[in-house]
Amino acid sequence: MVAVIHQGSSLREAVNYNERKVERQVAVLLDAGYYPKDPEDLTFKQRLARLENRAKLNQRVKVNHFHVSLNFAPGEHIAKEDLKQIAALYLDKIGFANQPYLLYEHNDSGHPHLHVVSTTIRADGSSINLHNIGRNQSSKARREIENQFGLIKADGRKGQSFELKPVNLQKVEYGKSDTKRAISNVLSSVLESYRYTSLPELNAVLKQYNIMADGGMEDSRIYRNQGLVYYALDANGNRAGASIKASDFHFRPTLKFLQNQFAAGETDRLKHRAKLKNSIDLILVRGQGQSLEDLMLSLEKEGVKVVLRKSPTGLVYGITYVDHRTKCVFNGSVLGKEYSAKGILDRIGQKNTALQTTAKKLDKKQSSEASDIKLQESVGSFASFDFNANPESNKSSDPLLEDLFTPLSDDSLTPWQLRKSRRKKRKKNISQ
After folding, report:
1. Where is the MobA/VirD2-like nuclease domain (predicted)?
2. Which one, of 360, 374, 405, 373, lies nearest residue 387 by Cα?
């Protein structure tokens, strides 16, 4: 099971998102916890009013709502009553006991999943602290529920793991809701569960699912306004279809949201650095990394994806490690110089020859051509020199030839005393 906590601006927005799914018949209201009526007897206004009235008990709190999706592995068939119990138990374990909530079951993706909407305001007006709830209370609750209900574990300890599948563009029509839904499914699971510190690091993960995040060029309007868009990639990694603004997704994966994730990822991933470094070192010590390709394949078998950054001419100038075991992303230089692109290439004894070979050939060719030109110029000037002519007529504009044929003065046979320059005597002032 994978729990993904969604960001949003209001209770109404979170409820509306799920209700629209119900209208499109791709979701059903499965339960209404701590409501006075059964879910099927509640109108939309009643569903929303119960949560909003509770939230009004403390209007000083900015984030007064809670929206989480509980995702199960493809192929897992869970009874409706068990789904209700799982949702209720999850809320109790993360500190939402006795809180009113709406439980929706969605069937619009390749795996079964639930959405739960609740409020952070308790009956006495106090609020529930959401800080790090995903990494602390939620992770613990998820593991306990997996054991209790025999679910496929998110960390794959049973030999199975729940993985998101890349967006398959062959099944998507560009510009329609299918594309947006497919991207949304990946973002909702990746953004909260992986630890990254920059947009390029996040893209190292998203690209594996044929998705890219783009903050625009420095002179673009989207960059000036601190905007962010997401778009799909085709099988060759090229942009395909229209981009979708971050604000168009219900959980709003905007640049502001990502900046908070960047800051959290900076500290959260530190404890996992040693594990990744040990994996790389062990492969190299065993001799399994005879080449860069061998190292990448060996790491991939252990659950680490290596993403290379190359110049247009094929020069490898950067390396990023996506550790799916710990869900952490590291640039090579962050791990240390020996784990950077240059450091890895040096350690496996493989030269980064893509540009070096070309550069050496060009330098050799240019040097050879330059030498030939100088030799031809010198020979040409030398051939036109008339040894029998008047010396004045042989004056050349080529300083090289002038230096070559100008006699050198040799003072080596002159006594040192005679070569020494005399000091000028100072005239004494005669006082009169």
Report:
1. 17-151
2. 405
**Range with the lowest mean pLDDT among 154-158, 319-323, 325-329, 369-373?**
369-373
Distance CA 165, CA 41 (A): 37
The model's pLDDT over 150-163, given as tens digits with 9 standing for 90+, comes to: 998 877 544 344 55
Instruction: Give the bridge partners for 34, in sequence order.
Output: none
> In angstroms, rounded to a whole number, what is the distance separating the alpha carbons of residues 19 and 28?
8
How much is the pLDDT for 226? Answer: 85
DSSP letters spanning 234-292? -TTS-EEEEEEEGGGSTT---HHHHHHHHHHHHHHTGGGHHHHHHHHHHHHHTT--SSH
Integer Cα distance of 152 and 143 in angstroms:
10
Out of 306, 334, 353, pick the residue that ends a domain.
353
Q: Is the pLDDT of residue 404 over 60?
A: no
21 and 130 together in one domain = yes
The Cα–Cα gap between 294 and 4 comes to 35
CA 308, 311, 313: angle at the middle one, nearest 5? Answer: 120
Structure tokens at 153: 């574990």
327/201 Cα distance (integer angstroms):
12
235 in the same domain as 129: no
Residue 314, domain member (yes or no): yes
Q: List the structure tokens of 218.
A: 């420095």
Phi then psi for residue 33, to 5 deg, are -75, 130
* Distance separating alpha carbons of residues 127 and 65, to the nearest angstrom: 10
